[in-house]
Amino acid sequence: MKKFFALLKVSVKSMLLSSTNSQGGSRKRAATGVGAMVLIAFLGLYMSGFYSSMLMHALAPVHMEVLVFIFMGMGALVGGLLFTAFAVKGVVFGGKDNDLLLSMPVSSTMLMASRVSAIYLENLLFALFVLAPAGAVCTFMTQSGVGHSVLFWVRLAVAVFTLPLLDTALSVLMGALVAFLSARVTRGVLGQNIVMAVYMAAVFWFAFNVNGMIEGLAANAAGVKESLSWAAPMLWMADGIMGDWGLLLAFAACCIVPFALVVFGLGRVYRQAVTAFAARSARNDYKLSAQSASGQKKALLAKEAKRFFGTPMYFWNAGIGLIMLVAMGAAALVMQNDLREFIGLLGGALPVMPMAALAMGFCLCTSAVAAPSISLEGKYLWILREAPVDEGSLLWIKTGFELLLSLPCTVIGGVCLIIALQLTAPEGALLIFSMALFAGCHAAFGMLMGLTFPKLDAVNETVVVKQSLAVMLDMFVPMGVLGLCALLYWLGGRMAPALALALPLALLAVFTGVCVLILAKKGPAMLKAL
Which of 134, 254, 481, 527 could be a cystine partner for 391, CB 3.0 to 4.6 Å? Predict the structure, then answer.
């Protein structure tokens, strides 16, 4: 067991921790690890707290609290897959230390178990912050006494610890599929993008169906439960939490058995699989062909585009916010009648244009394109530095690439929302202008974070894109700026109507100006120092 825990420690560090640079020391490594865990916990807590309260409000009067745990279990399962499925390819099958670890006097099954256990711990963290808040909401809002006994919390703890086993098994299988496609398909990137696109389509389909189920919960809660028979393990888990020990044990077995089969089954062929995947990825096919003439800036922009669209981990993590921005606008157009009816019911209680701006701003915050771009150069940054382009131009090209992606999406999403919400011309112009300004400051701030907290020795792109401190700050600091803008809007509205819009715009202008000025003055020297 001593060997296993030593390997598990290494795997957990590979999964969650990433130093900002080789001289960063333990404090920066700890800050990044804590940041990754805080992000997972925050998302789980937010999702569970919001939806559990909404569901319980509809279900408590009809004594169907069990549906809360069914939906939250599905959310934990789908969310865990989203967090870890594509990280498996890098952590389990693509780690740069695989050759070293496989040469050690430990079995390949033990090494596989340690790496899969690291995935399990991340899924466990998310499941804890999804199911535990649901239990607390059930305890406080129930009308049938559910949650008022110690055994309820014991059964909930069993579910919390066993559900991530099923999640991990599915994540590893999906990661193995992605690694297989990368090794076998000529354009491995295309294969990974196809798998991820299918997965995201399934997630959106599930989300739309869940919304439809929630609408009819109060009238037909029992019917909704019967319609979920295809998700039998989630029903077993929910009924088990509510008091059925037999179904809870059946659910535990449904989670433990696939996990054990994945560990021992893939463990037996782990060495062969890793060797085959590495050998294929190391192969290069060289073809002599004519090269079209191009300017320096066009060539560098093409290089950024090739990395962004050719790296699935980068594209789907940094680009998901932009996809959501366009999808949100399209969905608003499709459901514009429902939106207008909902706004009419509110009676002007919430300002429509600022709320639309907050939604768009949140999507832009999750689009960290510039922040990891320096770190993704890795050990080949010196090649870029040797190009006949000064450091300032390199920085502005990387920053401008994010704007080339975010500005069109901002305009498209903004125009769709303007039409769907029937905003006036001045409100629409202000919405697009403010969000374009925010997109600019987000790109400049992200580049500053990438220069301040670089990670040039990451074992794979997963560490840079998902778990680096630069990306964390690039997401959460602009979110804090959005929150401050909302506060200024409220304070300004209490003093004078004109100040309600002037104060947030002034804050965005100042933040953008400061970021651009620092990047222009200090950025080239910071890049040169790397």
Answer: 527
Q: Is-contact 315 193, C-beta < 8 A?
A: yes
**Residue 382: exposed, middle, or buried by beta-carbon count in 10 A (0-12, 13-18, 19+)?**
exposed
* Residue for token pair 């189920």: 213
pTM above 0.70, yes or no: no
Contact 94, 460 (CB under 8 A): yes
In 10 A of CB 379, how many CB atoms?
Answer: 9
Q: How far is 42 from 388, CA to CA, in rounded Å?
A: 44
DSSP label at residue 291? -
Which structure tokens are listed for 89? 């390819």
H-state helical runs in 269-390: 270-282, 296-310, 312-318, 320-334, 336-346, 352-365, 373-377, 381-385
Residue 142 CB neighbours (<10 A) = 17
Give mean pLDDT, residues 75-104.
72
H helix or E strand, kind and range, residue 468: none
Tokens 């169906």 label which residue? 209
Q: Half-sphere exposure of 388 toward its Cβ, with a 13 Å CA cutoff?
A: 2
Structure tokens at 115: 């790496």
3-state secondary structure of 30: helix
Q: Is 152 left (phi over 0), alpha (psi -120 to 50) or beta?
A: alpha
Q: What is the 3-state secondary structure (H, E, C) of 472-495?
A: HHHHHHHHHHHHHHHHHHHHHHHH
Q: At what angle do helices 25-59 and 2-16 cross, to 10 degrees?
A: 80
Residues in the chain: 530
pLDDT at res. 378: 80
pLDDT range class, residue 392, cuts 50, 70, 90? confident
3-state secondary structure of 20: coil
| Higher pLDDT among residues 90 and 73, named by residue | 73
H-type helices in 64-107, by residue range?
A: 66-88, 98-102
Residues whose CB falls within 8 Å of the CB of residue 378, separated by 6 or more in sequence, listed in order: 456, 457, 458
Torsion of CA 507, 324, 472, 476, to 10 degrees: 30
Find the angle CA(490)-CA(494)-CA(498) to the nearest 5 degrees: 85
3-class secondary-structure state, position 435 = helix
In whole angstroms, what separates CA 90 from the centre of its chain? 16
Task: For residue 24, give the amino acid letter.
Answer: G
How confident is the model over 437-478, as pLDDT tens digits?
Answer: 999 999 999 999 999 988 887 766 777 887 788 888 999 899
* CA separation for the pair 491, 424 (Å, rounded): 23
What is the spatial distance between Cα 504 and Cα 516, in angstroms, rounded to a whole number? 18
Burial-class residue 220 by CB neighbours within 10 Å (0-12, 13-18, 19+).
middle
